[in-house]
Fold:
Amino acid sequence: MTEQFPGRVLDLLGAAGGRTVFEHAGRTVSGAGLLAAVRRVATGLRGHGAGPGDGVALLLGVSPEAFAAVVAAHTVGARVVGVRPGLTEGQRRHLLADTAFVVTDGSAGPAGERTGKLLALDDLLSSPDDGVRPEVSARPQDVARLLHTSGSTGVPKACAQTYAAMTAAWNLRPDAWPPAVRELAARLDRFLVFGTLASQVMTEYGLLALAAGGTLVTTGEPDLFDGIARHRATASVITVARLTKLVARRRESPGALGSLRALMVSGSPPAPGLLREAAEVLGPVVFHGYGQTETGMISMATPWDEPGSLGVPPVDLEVRDPAGRPVPPGTDGELFVRTPAQSSGYWREPARTAEVYAGGWVRTRDLGHLDGEGRLWLTGRTRDVVIVNATLHHTGPVERLLATHPSVAEAYVVAVPDDDTGEAVHAFVVPAAGHVPDLGELRALVTAGLGEASAPTRLTLIGEVPLTPAGKPDKRRLAAGDPRGQ
Structure:
């Protein structure tokens, strides 16, 4: 019988021995040292009564000790909840409401109102260390962690992922790596970790880096360019907005970033034009991962894939019409997927679970198609729409078409009220360098490609798109008149 997660993590750290696996704030931590920290925190948690099925919330920064606490909480079989920065007080209270223990290192702000017992990470790290590999207490069908969605519609939904699902995940099993992941893993020698370990993407690819024999490196620089250059990082996760900035900085400093080999774009799809520019300026380093909180990774494009493609999905994927019937290649429809590590549903929300999870499949609510070679192409979201004269128009195709105009670097579309048509298209555009987009030209482009109803009636130029705490474009702020631009 396969030992449950995080057994493979413990074995990786044990096998690393004296090799450096974490660099943080000018110090290095070996695999043996990190494993010792896991042992101490696990002993401390068990001493306080934490065990299988107990909720453990983690209010932690990014450090070797914080990483050890994550692994330790899973070692005792707890239901782990990561609390990321940037949440409202109400959202944080919601995340902490159903936990027996709250572990904090003081870096993520006060715990505030909570039901669980507050534990200081430093106190847990002072627990005795018997030097013996910790016993993994996890049970396969217990919930291993609650992965929260961005909360862009209010209170974040919690996706419940079991220990069986985490054990089946591909990132710690080199024999199960799809070709694109194997290509990425070979470039993770020095993986830059930042933001929060509550990030699903950061944790997943951090574990992949360890499985590939790499080192996790933290950065104190707010600017990713400076962080990569200073720490000689070979890889990191990046959003579309940060990729745009990184490309601009690289043009200014062509001699920097010589160590860079991989950037994993996450959160939202980059426009094909940005991918081509990034390849020209940074070289063949951009990977684009497509996945959801509910499913984990669904597909991944390598630097060699055609811009806009998401590569060939290594998971079960069906494109279905509105009646739920599979459609042939080349036909757009809604994407339904099955992945080894997908969550089992939304925590204590059976009605929402029934809407998205059915018969082992997860309804992504994304639109796309498979081409004749099995490559995946996204075309929009089923709920990201503008209703013009009672007809739904998806914003994804409009955004992609706008991004093809030479004056446009990035484009984001929201619905605005309109006295004549009910709703109309409002385009928020990040101008390409040296250009000033013109509403008339953009309207003509969209009208010719998608019809007059999809053409923007309003245009706002912004310096950058506002982001949610999860790093995704925050269209709610755009629609509310908070573009944080010009």
In short: The mean pLDDT is 91.
